[in-house]
Design goal:
The complex is a heterodimer of chains A (about 290) and B (about 290). With about 290 residues, chain A is an alpha/beta fold. Chain A folds into 2 domains: about 5-165, Rossmann fold; about 170-290, N-(1-d-carboxylethyl)-l-norvaline Dehydrogenase, domain 2. In chain A, about 50% of the residues lie in helices and about 15% in strands. Chain A has helices at about 10-25, 40-45, 50-55, 70-75, 80-85, 100-110, 125-130, 140-155, 165-195, 200-205, 215-220, 235-250, 255-270, 280-290; strands at about 5-10, 25-30, 45-50, 60-65, 90-95, 115-120, 120-125, 135-140, 160-165. Chain A has a 6-stranded parallel sheet, sandwiched between helices. In chain A, strands 7-8-9 form a 3-stranded mixed sheet, sandwiched between helices. Chain B has about 290 residues and is an alpha/beta fold. Chain B has 2 domains: about 5-165, NAD(P)-binding Rossmann-like Domain (Rossmann fold, 3-Layer(aba) Sandwich); about 170-290, N-(1-d-carboxylethyl)-l-norvaline Dehydrogenase, domain 2 (Orthogonal Bundle). Chain B has 14 helices and 9 strands. Chain B has helices at about 10-20, 40, 50-55, 70-75, 80-85, 100-110, 125-130, 140-155, 165-195, 200-205, 215-220, 235-250, 255-270, 280-290, and strands at about 5, 25-30, 45, 60-65, 90-95, 115-120, 120, 135-140, 155-160. A 6-stranded parallel sheet of chain B has the order 3-2-1-4-5-6, sandwiched between helices. In chain B, strand 2 (about 25-30), helix 2 (about 40) and strand 3 (about 45) form a beta-alpha-beta unit. The chains are: A alpha/beta (about 290), B alpha/beta (about 290). At the A-B interface, strand 9, helix 9, helix 10, helix 11 and helix 12 of A face strand 9, helix 9, helix 10, helix 11 and helix 12 of B.
């Protein structure tokens, strides 16, 4: 019999994961702060829970995916929170990108409740999930990892245990700094080519097929011609991750020159009023600085 | 099957010539040091004593050398390619050099009644052997169409980006991403490692993540062990970064990550790593982070 699953936080990414779990035949009880957003999933067979606690009580394995550390505290702590509802022996799989220390603190609270927490942030986008190509990093006790592994493989094909609690979010933050830096370098390349006299679409085509064309550049490159609707990953979210990286670097004594430069350009994007725009809007920042219309 | 010439048979040029031979073309080649191309002669290549003789003997001449100075050395003078070019032939230079120098050369080639294309590549000798090399081409559309079938024998992705010199501009623009991506990759590995994740695990995750470009996939593992022979050394990488920065100043395009990354290549040179693969910037950053390689 398949395990009963819970899922708290049904935003763009969380919602796409729940849809995939439903398609794989799992029973999912989900909660979202704004219920109306969960309606399409309810229509696809998801049971709605009134609180994060209700979602945890109904499940053997409960997942969550929210925006930041503060939002995670809001769904995990307190009488209506996930930790209060965890059944003994159940596993809590936390997929948000948050501060590693905060993640470890919640893992300790979960452990005191007789359960196990894993941090399992993902590398990819909505599109990556839909294509079944999401990679998932996992931190926490190996035994719990082995139990949830088949389930994680239903979400995406690449599942890697990187170490103890908090280390997967550390890994995720390390990975994500390159999203900002690669996008910034792509904008530099594109504007250099354009001002040299190459059509923007032609230059982009070359850049999306050359040695630096990462999956991220391949799916986000077209956003430089037309931004996505809805936004996938906005400037505020990108800067949140870069701030986590820079703070981690200072704490651990790892200089992050390219991450710091890139972060400065996202500050510029916010200063220019682009905070809620897709992070690829850093192209508009660079275009203005180059005297080119975006 | 075409009658082709090739001047400059180093790591990349030699591999391109080998591939052209394998596709059944007749290739006449020249290299400054003949002993380095015996393997190509064994594979059927005819050796010519000078660049000029290569041009005289063939319908389509290729060249691939290290920098602008080396290009002038094989093109100019009584033994140079220009002196041997016959009217109606095509000269395809695959080197990564200054775009203005390439354009000036294309004017002299046209005066000799031939046509020049700049056709730099994105990739390395492994990409080439796998048959996945991307080639950008600048020059007249008519010459491009004539050369296209031969270029497709080298790699599957051939794009004409515009007039003479523009493929080089595109190449220089795309190459800055190599060094910037590698620096960000090294930052990520060290951040993960000092958090407590084994370096090999961090490399495994990163080379399978959304930021894993083809370059990251092949060069990322070099932070574990550098290759004995550099695929692309610090000097070469810095040459391309300098070309990009000069272009940026000339065209008024600020390049903040390019400029930052270039400083780390300078540090790598200062620390005695000039001839190592530029993945050695990991060692520079590791030194700064107090981590042993």
């Amino acid at each position: 019999m398949k395990a009963a699953l819970g899922f708290v936080g049904l935003g763009l990414m969380g919602g796409a994961i729940v849809r995939r779990l439903l398609e794989k035949g799992h029973v999912v009880t989900g909660h979202n702060r704004t219920r109306s957003r969960a309606q399409p999933l309810v229509e696809a067979g998801m049971r709605f829970a009134q609180t994060p606690r209700d979602a945890a009580e109904a499940a053997d394995i409960v997942f969550s995916m929210v925006t930041d550390t503060q939002a995670l505290r809001a769904i995990a702590d307190g009488p209506g929170g996930i930790v209060a509802g965890l059944k003994p022996g159940s596993i809590y799989v936390e997929m948000s990108t948050v501060d590693a220390d905060a993640s470890r603190e919640i893992a300790d609270a979960v452990s005191r409740a007789g359960c196990v927490m894993l941090d399992a942030p993902v590398s990819g986008s909505v599109l990556t999930i839909q294509r079944g190509e999401l990679s998932i990093m996992v931190g926490g006790p190996r035994e719990a990892f082995e139990r949830v592994r088949p389930l994680l493989l239903d979400i995406g094909p690449k599942v890697t245990h990187v170490g103890g609690n908090g280390l997967a979010v550390s890994m995720k933050i390390a990975v994500n700094l390159s999203i900002g830096v690669q996008m910034q370098a792509l904008c530099e390349s594109l504007l250099l080519a354009e001002k040299a006299g190459i059509a923007r679409a032609t230059a982009l085509e070359v850049l999306m097929n050359c040695a630096t064309a990462s999956p991220m550049i391949k799916y986000r490159g077209p956003f430089l011609l037309a931004p996505p609707d809805p936004v996938w990953f906005n400037v505020n979210m990108m800067q949140k991750d870069l701030n986590l990286a820079v703070a981690m670097g200072q704490r651990l004594g790892v200089p992050l020159p390219s991450a710091a430069v890139s972060n400065g350009m996202f500050t510029a994007a916010r200063g220019m009023g682009f905070a809620e725009k897709e992070m690829s809007v850093v192209f508009d920042v660079m275009a203005r600085l180059s005297g080119v219309s975006a | 099957m075409a009658n082709l010439g090739y001047v400059g048979l180093g790591l990349m040029g030699g591999a391109v010539a080998k591939r052209l031979l394998e596709k059944g073309h007749a290739v006449t080649g020249h290299n400054r040091t003949r002993s380095k191309v015996q393997w190509l002669e064994a594979a059927g290549m005819r050796f010519a004593q000078t660049p000029r003789e290569v041009a005289e003997a063939t319908d389509m001449v290729f060249s691939m050398v290290t920098d602008t100075k080396a290009l002038h050395a094989i093109v100019d003078g009584p033994d140079g390619i220009l002196a041997g070019l016959r009217p109606g032939t095509i000269y395809i230079d695959m080197s990564t050099v200054d775009a203005a120098a390439s354009r000036a050369l294309s004017v002299r080639v046209a005066a000799a009644g031939a046509q020049m294309l700049d056709a730099p590549v994105s990739g390395n000798h492994i990409t080439l052997k796998q048959g996945t090399l991307a080639i950008m081409v600048g020059g007249q559309a008519e010459a491009f169409e004539r050369a296209r079938p031969v270029l497709l024998d080298i790699g599957p992705k051939v794009t004409r980006v515009g007039a003479n010199g523009l493929a080089l501009s595109m190449k220089i623009a795309s190459n800055l991403g190599l060094a910037v991506q590698m620096l960000a990759f090294c930052e990520a590995v060290l951040l993960a490692e000092k958090s407590g994740i084994a370096r090999s695990v961090a490399v495994e995750v990163l080379t399978n993540s959304v930021i894993a470009s083809p370059m990251i996939k092949y060069r990322g593992p070099f932070v574990m062990t550098l290759p004995d022979e550099a695929w692309f050394n610090v000097n070469m990488m810095q040459k391309d970064m300098n070309l990009a920065l000069a272009m940026g100043q000339q065209l008024n395009v600020p390049l903040p990550t390019t400029a930052t990354t270039n400083e780390f290549l300078t540090a790598a040179r200062a620390m005695g790593h000039a001839d190592k693969d530029f993945a050695v910037i990991f060692d520079v950053l590791a030194e700064m982070a107090g981590v042993k390689r």
